[in-house]
Amino acid sequence: MRADLRLSLTAAVAAVALAATTAPALADTTPAAAPAVGIGRAVTDDAQRGTFAVTAWTDAPQAGITTVSARIRQGDTVLADIPALAPETGRDPQFVNTFRLPAEATLKLVEDGGTLPSLGTYAIDVTATDSLGNKLTRADAGRLDFRLRPDLVSFGVGVPAWDDRNARPQGNLSAVQPGSGDIVPLPDRTVTVRRDGAADEALRTLVTSAAGDFTGEPYAVAGPGDTFTASFAEDSAEVHGSVSASRQVWEYKPLRATATAAADRKRALNGETVTVTGRLTDPAAAGAPLADQPVRVAFGPQVRTVRTGTDGRFTAKLPAFAGSGQYEWEVTSGDPFLSFNRLSGPLAVPLESRTDLLGASLSADGAISVTVSLRARYVPDITQSSVQLEQSVAGGWKRVPLKEIISSWNEVTLNASGRGGWYRVRHLTTDELAESSTYSFRLVRNDTRIVSLNAGPEPVVKGKDVTITGGLQHYWDGAWRAYGNAPVVLQFQPKGSRTWNTVASGRSGSTGKVSLRAKAGADGSWRIHCFGDYRHFNSPASAGGDYVDVR
Length: 551
Description:
46 strands; mainly beta; 5-stranded antiparallel beta sheet
């Protein structure tokens, strides 16, 4: 700043300060009124760079924008005069007061029938008028980006195959010309290609041909899933923008093989080893074996990858363990470039089970009833089971025929007939549950019998007494002995009937002798019967009586 101007400015400031202390200001200090019409920034449409949009508004009450015009210029030279921009329609708030160059007025190069001499950027001047006549012109409201927009017209990585496991990035880089929308190649441009996730792998640069085509050196790929990205960016007088495209190796040409496989068992207990064997051959080579090829063998959550031998055969050993009960082995290819149909087969691993004795009884008439609880790890309730009652016979266990089996959730009741002994309940191995059994338990009762049965006199006069005598014995300490002071009953079976009717009761003597009397009313058989207690069986129901003729 010049010294004389600095001194003048200092004096002026001092004078104003002195005047403010001595008298009120008399000059008119009302600021100039702001223009009623406003114009925003003009923005090029990136999809079609021959058009643009601008916002315009008015603050005048009860007024609205009536006309928005524009002109495109380069320096002082006006290249296009646009009398009216069209207002945006629709209810989207972001387009309120927005005006756009109509599609039919899209700016083009001279060679395309337009007025713009070349690609580049141009100034946009905008004039807006409201309904009250208020008017505003904004010079350089925006810059028209009239340059090529780059586009990766195509990008791919080829189709890796069994005998050529490489991806080959290739494609075409072109650009969209503003106005006409023509696609023009971008020659001698550098496109970068990278493999996603490979931070330690250097970017590769590819140069486009005269047609915009590019092809890169091959990338070795392990299989489908590798992803490659091509990128290009430029900001020059002719081209502006960036573009990228990603492609994944999803298509490939594997070798189609023939596979066979089998497991050495369909059921394995916890800890046992399951062996799966198979063979790979090449049908296109007359069934020749495929050597040194990876094969995935899975059994539940376990996976083993093994390789085929020179004869194409493979073997995998997997331990079985009790988990969810049912499994399936499967064989699949361990190489994405080697394909064959999935092979599988059933393989059950029974869960560890537990059979607990809840109760056991042996009734006086030889009825056995045993109730057990059946449990399995990981399974809260079991509604089906395979259990049997077994009796110890001659140092081994023999299955006892069942009359009835009742299953209710985890409880199972077995009903059978027997004369006592050592028993157990065993759950047999199934695909669902492994074998388990209760501890051995003993059911004990002593047999009883009537000996020397006699009814008399015979014949007997009707209405007279019949005396029935006999001896009651029980099997005790390995021998038949007298069973004294035990309750007995006298039973009669009329001739032609199968029913025994109790007609009298009594007790055996101290030596086991029994003597009971009854009136004779009809021909029939008489017998003495003993109903067992908690230590004794009933005397045999099949025992016949002594027949007496009544006259």
